[in-house]
Amino acid sequence: MTKLPSFEIRPALPSDAQAVEAILTDTYLGTWKPQLAPAAAAAFEQQGKTRSYVAARLQAFRVACVDGVPAAMVDWENNFIWALHVGRAWQRMGLGGALLAHAEAEIARAGHREARLETDTFNQQSRAFYRRQGYAEIDFYPDESWDSGFTTVLLAKPLAPA
């Protein structure tokens, strides 16, 4: 793994919306779109879910910035991590692990003893990443977000009290 020379983790700003949407679009194109049937991909893209998600939750996001530019993001609520995305050009440099550790520390500081998140069974890269970070796969169920036939994996990790 190549380490970045330096990056900062900070709350997302309104001016970050376009960059965060670009990160989410980049990871969608590289990870999910190749797995989707063309009709499901077209439906997802037409629904504008990425833009709506960013507009609704941007104030909760934390971003990892390299030279002031968001390269990765994380979003959590209570003890559930809704999203952790690293732009493909920035993967395998420590940003994902740093953002995950940041989210876990904040979750623990809020009094939660466990962090939870989801991925899909086909996403072997994310499953391996989360296993390396101490997460266990605890449940499997149909992924209804994509209308794709995917199976969602629920993962959990115990957290030490803050």
What is this structure, in a nutshell?
The chain is an alpha+beta fold. It has helices at residues 17-32, 38-47, 49-57, 95-109, 124-132; strands at 8-11, 62-66, 69-77, 80-86, 114-120, 136-142, 151-158.
Polypeptide structure, described:
With 162 residues, this protein is α+β, with helices and mostly antiparallel strands. The protein has one domain (8-158): Gcn5-related N-acetyltransferase (GNAT) (Aminopeptidase), CATH 3.40.630.30. 36% of the residues lie in helices and 29% in strands. It is built from five helices and seven strands, in the order βαααβββαβαββ. It has helices at 17-32, 38-47, 49-57, 95-109, 124-132; strands at residues 8-11, 62-66, 69-77, 80-86, 114-120, 136-142, 151-158. A seven-stranded mixed beta sheet has the order 1-2-3-4-5-7-6. A hairpin with an 8-residue loop joins strand 6 and strand 7. Helix 1 (17-32) crosses helix 3.
Determine the structural class based on helices, strands and strand pairing. alpha+beta
What fraction strand? 25-35%
**Percent of residues in helices:** 25-40%
Count of spatially separate domains: 1
- Contiguous low-pLDDT stretches (5 residues minimum) are none
Which properties best describe this structure?
162 residues; alpha+beta; Aminopeptidase; 7-stranded mixed sheet; 36% helix
